[in-house]
Amino acid sequence: MPIIVQKFGGTSVADIEHIHNVAQKVKNEVDLGNQVVVIVSAMAGVTNQLIDWANAAVSDHDDREYDVIVSTGEQVTSGLLALCLQNINVDARSWMSWQIPFQTDNNHSKARITDIGTTAIRNSLNSGVVAVIPGFQGVSSENRITTLGRGGSDTTAVALAAALAAQRCDIYTDVNGVYTTDPRIVSGAQKIEKITYEEMLEMASQGAKVLQTRSVALAMRYNVRLQVRSSFEDAPGTLVLNEDEIVEKETITGIAYSLEEAKITLRGVKDRPGVAGRIFGSLADASINVDMIVQNVSENGETTDLTFTVGKIDLSTAVEVLGELKDEIEFANVTTNPNVSKISVVGVGMRSQPGVAKTMFTTLADKGINIQVISTSEIKVSVLIASDYTELAVRALHSIFELDNPSQLES
Amino acid sequence: MPIIVQKFGGTSVADIEHIHNVAQKVKNEVDLGNQVVVIVSAMAGVTNQLIDWANAAVSDHDDREYDVIVSTGEQVTSGLLALCLQNINVDARSWMSWQIPFQTDNNHSKARITDIGTTAIRNSLNSGVVAVIPGFQGVSSENRITTLGRGGSDTTAVALAAALAAQRCDIYTDVNGVYTTDPRIVSGAQKIEKITYEEMLEMASQGAKVLQTRSVALAMRYNVRLQVRSSFEDAPGTLVLNEDEIVEKETITGIAYSLEEAKITLRGVKDRPGVAGRIFGSLADASINVDMIVQNVSENGETTDLTFTVGKIDLSTAVEVLGELKDEIEFANVTTNPNVSKISVVGVGMRSQPGVAKTMFTTLADKGINIQVISTSEIKVSVLIASDYTELAVRALHSIFELDNPSQLES
Question: Which end of chain A is more exposed for a tag (fewer CB within 10 A), N or C?
Answer without folding.
Answer: C
